[in-house]
Amino acid sequence: MPSLKEFRVRIASVQSTKKITSAMKLVSAAKLRKTQDAVVRSRAYTDALRGILGQLQGGSEFSHPLLETRATVKKVRVLVIGGQRGLCGGFNTNTNRRVEALYQELAKKHPGVEVSAVLLGKKPAEYFRRVSRGYLDAVENLGDDPITWPTQEVCQRLEIDFLKGEFDELYVVYTRFRSAISTIPTAERLLPLDKESLSSATAAT
Q1: Which of 30, 88, 131, 160 is catalytic?
Q2: Could you say which DSSP state residue 150 is in?
Q3: Interatomic CA distance for residues 98 and 90, integer angstroms
């Protein structure tokens, strides 16, 4: 049977661990609040931008190459935005499932279509390699702050490729944030710009 001294050492160790985990909890809560605020701000910006685009598109005289729908969709590009680490519940698994569902949807909608992918995040790249699916490019070393991600460079490259005719449609797969315990794996078409969604955004603003 452990001695009284050993019990005291164990109690002290548990109390020390409790202090450390409490501090970690406070730090995590602060980071979560900061991230939630950033999501809310960015969503408001996105909605306003969609509304402006919808108003511009509303005029019959307005036209732009990014609005032009290709007669035949032979090539589709998919931008996958996933996690950098594991141990986050079904976050990465649900994203991968949405990717698989999108590939099936595209094959059914456009028989014989050629689908290529650009990946942001370590976990999507690991998944594509695990299932032996090729991809054009992957940025795996992403920092904790999304501002440091090369999203502008990636989007500019995708825009140029679309205008050059390298692909006919562009989709993005990401996780839409609803709350700290609820996220929705989502696939949206980015290019060509969806006139219906722009119009609905204009009506909502």
Answers
A1: 88
A2: -
A3: 12
Q: How many CB atoms lie within 10 A of CB 117?
A: 22
Asked whether the predicted pLDDT for residue 111 surpasses 80, the reply is yes
**Per-residue pLDDT tens digits for 124-163:** 999 999 999 999 999 888 776 777 788 889 999 999 999 9
Q: DSSP letter for 142, please.
A: -
Give residue 103's Cα distance to chain centre.
16
Q: What is the pTM of this model?
A: 0.73
- What 3-state DSSP class applies to 84? coil
Amino acid identity of residue 26, one-letter, is L
Conformational region of residue 191, where left means phi above 0, alpha means psi within -120 to 50, and beta covers everything else: beta
**Which of 41, 43, 83, 36 is CA-nearest to residue 180?**
36
Are the beta carbons of 110 and 69 closer than 8 angstroms?
A: no
**Beta strands at 182-191 and 114-120: parallel, antiparallel or unpaired:** unpaired
Instruction: Judge whether 88 counts as a catalytic residue.
Output: yes
